[in-house]
Amino acid sequence: MKVSAVFIITFMLTSGCGMKSPVPDCDLSRGPCVKDISGYRIVFYTEPAPPATLKDTVFRLEITPPVEADMVVLELSMPGMYMGENRIILKRSGKRRSALYKAEGIIVRCPSGATLWQADFRIPDTGEVSFRFHVVY
């Protein structure tokens, strides 16, 4: 029995972004998310919270104690489904007891309706940290 290529491609596109293995480790609707890496406290939050797809979103990252980096790279992805490259550069805003970074970006919508996304932050000379969170439509 032959299965049409259209059916296979449609199945892969609609089921891939709904994979259930990864789970969120960050609930932005309840407030900022916090992780510790290499002696630094990393706080991630968005405005609005939780972020909505296809709407302007401000991504913020706070690092304590402050690091010297002028920028942090944010890679947004959907676990289990390639949704295109979505790289955002967060720029440092002021000098305080912690390093504050922010930038505006957009999260695209998955055709299947899946809402789990991952934010991977690369902090120069410090390390990387990831947060998995849900978006709203």
Describe what you observe in this structure.
The N terminus is likely disordered. The chain is 9% helix and 44% strand. β5 and β6 form a beta hairpin. The chain has one helix and eight strands, in the order αββββββββ. The chain has a single domain, classed as Immunoglobulin-like (Sandwich), CATH 2.60.40. It is mainly beta. It is globular, with a radius of gyration of 17 Å. The chain has an eight-stranded antiparallel beta sheet with strand order 1-2-3-6-5-4-7-8, with no helix packed on it.
Give a quick precis of the structure:
The protein has one domain: Immunoglobulin-like, CATH 2.60.40. Helix content is 9%, strand content 44%.
Q: Return the average pLDDT rounded to an integer.
A: 87
Number of helices: 1
Helix content: under 10%
CATH architecture: Sandwich
Structural class: mainly beta
Count of spatially separate domains: 1
Compute the gyration radius: what is it? Answer: 17 Å
- Indicate the CATH class: Mainly Beta
Name the beta content range. Answer: 35-45%
Shape: globular
Largest sheet: 8 strands, antiparallel
CATH topology category name = Immunoglobulin-like
From the N-terminal CA to the C-terminal CA, the straight-line distance is 39 Å
- Return the string of H and E elements: HEEEEEEEE
Poorly predicted regions: 1-15
| E-strand count | 8
Strand order of the largest sheet: 1-2-3-6-5-4-7-8
